[in-house]
Amino acid sequence: MSDIPRVERDPEGRYANFFQIGFNEHEFVIDFGQQYQPGPECIHTRIVTSPSSARTLTELLDDS
Description:
This protein is of the alpha+beta class. It has one helix at residues 51-63; strands at 18-23, 28-34, 42-49.
């Protein structure tokens, strides 16, 4: 059996070169978007997750 989680449908892929993070003691809010100069950023995806899941994401990115 594969280690890849099952996805019920094909997720939409979006390019991001802009990131913004906010947090409190209960959750992390991670915004993904695009920014091209000159001009404002355009946020297209927001992920809200727990601190423990944000830590796991950080570890996965660091390992990669």
